[in-house]
Amino acid sequence: MMLRRRAVATVEFGLLSPVLTIFLMGMVDLSNAIIVLRRLNAAVQQIGPMATQLPIQPNQTTTPAVAQLNEASSLIFSVLPQLAKLPVYNASTNTAPPYAVTVSDVVFTPNSGTSCTAGLTCTSYTANLAWSVPLQYGQQLTRTCGTVAQVTSNAAPVIVNNLPSTVPTAAITSALTSMLVVDIVYKFTPIFGKFIGPVTMRQTAYFNQRSIVAPYITYNTAGAASGGTVCTAQGYV
Question: What tens digit of pLDDT does each residue of 34-62 get?
C-alpha cells in the first residue's frame, strides 16, 4: 500500500511539475515587466523637468541644443543601467538598440474666431509639432511634422512610426502656448518567455515650458550629430 501511494504521488508530481514551473516562470517575467514599466515611468518623469530647465537663459528665452536634450534624455541610463551596456545606434550598420527616448515640442495656436490670444484662456486650439529630437544612442524615432491630433485624456494614443502621434489636450480651456513631450519606447524581452517575442512598452509625459518670455521652445540644431525633425515649414526653429 505504501509503495502504491508513493507511486501515485510520483506520477502526480510528474504531471504537475511542468505546470508549476511554467507558472513560476510566468510570475518572474510578470514581476520583471512591472519593475521595468515603473522605471520607464520614473525616467520619463525626470527627463521632462530637466529638458525644460537646462536651456533657460537669464533673459528667460529658451533654446535647447542637441547636447542639452541628449543630457536630459540620458537619464534613462541611471534608471535602467543595463541599457548602457547595449550597443548604441549605428547608422552605417543600421544597429538599433531596443530603446528610444524622444523629446518633442508641441505649439498651440488659438483657432480663429475665439475671443482670446495665445497664453490666455481659450476654448479651441490647433496643435502643431515644432521639433522632435531622439537620444543619439537609441533608436532614431521622431514624431512627424504637421498638425497634432488632440484626444481626451482617457483615449488611447494613435501610434505612428512606433511613437504616439496625439496629445491628450482635447477640451482643455486653460492657457496653452507650448508643451514639451517626452516619449520612451522599450522592447522588453521576457527571460523565460522568449518564444512570445519582445513586448513593446511605451511611456509618455507632458510638461509645460518654464520660460515666461518665449511663446514656445525653439531648438538649436548647431553641432547636432542627429538633428531629429525640425518643422521649418511651420517656422518653429
Answer: 899 999 999 999 998 888 776 566 555 66
